[in-house]
Each structure stands twice: as structure tokens, then as C-alpha cells.
Write a structure and sequence with these properties.
CATH architecture of one domain: Roll
Helix content: 10-25%
Largest sheet: 4 strands, antiparallel
Order of helices and strands: HEEEHHHE
CATH topology of one domain: Flavocytochrome B2, Chain A, domain 1
Number of strands: 4
CATH class of one domain: Alpha Beta
Radius of gyration: 27 Å
CATH superfamily of one domain: Cytochrome b5-like heme/steroid binding domain
Length: 154
């Protein structure tokens, strides 16, 4: 255990308090990268009808996948929602929303949510409308009504 023993050598200069660098608030995370961050889209007032929302092209929405890129946007039925602040509140967890960042998730959304949730939680997150946003996953077919109801139910 001799290698753990601390000894001083007469020729070694020990640092004084003046030699120790002072901490600064300049961190590597705050060094400008040369590109300005994308601006966030403001939430639309609750009274604004969906048809009156501003239009954002689907290509622009695809770039918005995190807070650093101007907000995490998702699309449900051609309406754009900024879910950046809602991530930590989502009952299904953050990863569910993150997996659809910048894309359409309409059929997945409606499989787990109803109109009441959309009015209560979704409407305050609306920022715009769009067209042409792609869903990465093909919707599986749902088979409903394979049997025909007829006279045999007397």
C-alpha cells in the first residue's frame, strides 16, 4: 500500500490559493455553436378554432424534436402540439412522446385517448396546423363487425 502513501518532496512546489483557478460561470454548454436556436411557437388561445391556427409546413415540424431545437412538436389530425413542457406530466412517460417528436401520431393517440383528454390537456398545447406530416408506423387494420346482425337474434 505504499503507492497510496502521500509524501512531499523538497523539490516539489506546492500550489498556493492564488495558483488555483477561480470558478467561472462560463461552461462548455453555454459556448455559442454558431447557429441561433430556433424560436418557440407560442400556444394558441383556447378560443382559437383549429382552422384559424397558423400554418407550419411538415418539413419545419420535423426539425422540432427537443427544447433545444425550438420545442418538441407532435402532430395529431394535422394539428401541431408543443409537448416540451408536458413531457414530465404525461402519464405514459416521456419516452412515448419523444418517440413521435416531429412526426404525426394520430392513430396511436386515439387508441389511448378520448376527446375529453384532448380538450382538457391537448387544447392548451396547440400551436399551429399542418398538412403532410408522416407517421413512421403503419396503422394495423382493425376488424369490427365481422358478423352481421340479422333476424337470427329473435
Amino acid at each position: 500500500m505504499g503507492w497510496l502513501k502521500r509524501t512531499s518532496h523538497p523539490t516539489v512546489n506546492h500550489a498556493t490559493s492564488e495558483d488555483i483557478p477561480k470558478p467561472t460561470s462560463a461552461h462548455i454548454e453555454h459556448i455559442p455553436s454558431g447557429t441561433a436556436p430556433l424560436p418557440r411557437y407560442p400556444a394558441a388561445p383556447l378560443s382559437t378554432p383549429d382552422a384559424a391556427l397558423q400554418f407550419i409546413p411538415a418539413e419545419e415540424i420535423a426539425k422540432r424534436t427537443s427544447a433545444e431545437s425550438g420545442g418538441l412538436l407532435i402532430v395529431v389530425d394535422d394539428i401541431v402540439y408543443d409537448c416540451t413542457q408536458f413531457l414530465s406530466e404525461h402519464p405514459g412517460g416521456e419516452q412515448v412522446i419523444r418517440s413521435f417528436a416531429g412526426t404525426d401520431c394520430s392513430w396511436q393517440f386515439w387508441r389511448f385517448h378520448g376527446k375529453k383528454e384532448m380538450q382538457e390537456f391537448g387544447r392548451p398545447l396547440r400551436v399551429a396546423r399542418t398538412a403532410g406530416a408522416k407517421n413512421r408506423f403503419k396503422e394495423p387494420p382493425r376488424y369490427i363487425g365481422l358478423r352481421r346482425l340479422g333476424d337470427e337474434w329473435d
